[in-house]
Design goal:
Helices cover 40% and strands 20% of the residues. With 345 residues, it is α+β, with helices and mostly antiparallel strands. The strands form 2 sheets. A 7-stranded mixed sheet has the order 1-5-6-10-9-8-7, with helices on both faces. Strands 2-4-3 form a 3-stranded antiparallel sheet. The protein binds phenylalanine. Phenylalanine binds next to strand 8, strand 9 and strand 10.
């Protein structure tokens, strides 16, 4: 009985001192297991005089109950604690900063093309595309440009297959072959713009690149005149550049238009005169070539030049983007330097 009391006295410290469920199981074995003091007492009951047995038995039952309660209380405490630890280690911190993705945006050349096309769509034009690998026939012959013309030289044009003019293949030098391709396939009236890449055997400098972009325009109808051409381009320039940029038209020559002209915009970087590295001091920058469609082109595609008239133009996309945004030199468009391009989101 002595040691049962001693056991009950030290048990709370032992049980409450456990910090894991394993430790608690060990303590339980020590207090109530087969080799515990309690078990020993139980086994000793048989050796006691019969009249003492009930009291001892009762004391043992009491001790078991007290110890059991103590252990269960501690078990509940430890289980709650271990669950808390498990949940804490499972916790997802949704307040962490999300991964940052860089947002893409349209390249200045693409957005310029889209904007120009939108202006012409507003005037009733359709947008069409065409092949970059073109035959000499469409790039030159259809456009009233004979085999002896200097632009057909290997030093001016990038040929994929050169030699026999009848089946030479080249990288188109302008978007104008689509004039012939479109008219061959469609009856008048025609109102189309054709954006795309063009290629020339040019050495890159501030205003030249062996590959650049053009937007071709072609309008064929009854009674179109040079005034319609001029009015259309003036409208485009006002929409695209705003009314503060001045434009002018000068005579020029293209084999496939007659008469032909070029349109200039006032320089974005100088007032004219002096030393300007953008326009060379003339105060104007050429934007495009244009003119009234030559009757020979109409004949080549099977139109009757006595029944229809039309105008065409071909503008340099990099040029008009340069003039609009004041970007110089040209290579900024192709370098893919985000410090430059991100300014034109
Ligand atoms: N194709 C000409 C060029 O690349 C531009 C042009 C287009 C001129 C249409 C007249 C008519 O320079």
């Amino acid at each position: 009985m002595e040691s049962l009391d001693a056991l009950l006295k030290k048990a709370p410290t032992l049980v409450k001192g456990t910090s894991t469920l394993e430790e608690l199981s060990e303590a339980e074995a020590e207090l109530l297991g087969r080799r515990s003091v309690v078990a020993e007492f139980q086994r000793g009951i048989g050796r006691l005089p019969p009249e003492e047995r009930p009291a001892v038995g009762k004391a043992i039952q009491e001790a078991r109950r007290t110890l059991g309660k103590l252990i269960e209380t501690q078990r509940g405490r430890l289980e709650t604690e271990s669950e808390r630890l498990m949940l804490a280690s499972d916790r997802v911190d949704v307040s962490l900063a999300a991964l940052e993705y860089q947002e893409g945006y349209t390249h200045l050349i693409t957005s310029t093309i889209e904007e120009v096309c939108d202006i012409f769509i507003g005037l009733g034009y359709r947008v069409v595309g065409g092949p970059e690998a073109e035959s000499g026939t469409y790039n030159f012959d259809a456009l009233n440009t004979p085999p002896t013309h200097p632009s057909r030289l290997e030093s001016d044009t990038l040929y994929l297959d050169w030699g026999d003019p009848a089946d030479e293949i080249l990288l188109r030098t302008h978007t104008s072959p689509m004039q012939a391709r479109y008219m061959e396939e469609h009856d008048p009236p025609v109102y189309v713009v054709v954006p795309g890449k063009v290629y020339r055997a040019d050495t890159p400098d501030a205003t030249h690149s062996p590959v650049f972009h053009q937007i071709e325009g072609l309008a064929v109808d009854e009674d179109l005149t040079f005034s319609d051409l001029r009015g259309t381009l003036a409208y485009f320039a006002r929409e695209f550049f705003g009314s503060e940029r001045r434009i002018r038209m000068l005579p020029n020559f293209f084999p496939f238009t007659e008469p032909s002209a070029e349109m200039h915009a006032s320089c974005f970087s100088c007032e004219g005169g002096g030393q300007c590295r953008v326009c060379g001091g003339v105060g104007w920058i050429e934007l495009l070539g244009c003119g009234m469609v030559d009757p020979n082109v109409f004949e080549w595609v099977g139109y009757d030049p006595s029944k229809v008239s039309g105008f065409a133009f071909g503008m340099g996309v990099e040029r008009i983007a340069q003039v609009r945004h004041g970007v110089s030199p040209l290579r900024h468009f192709f370098d893919n330097d985000l410090r430059v391009l991100s300014q034109f989101r």
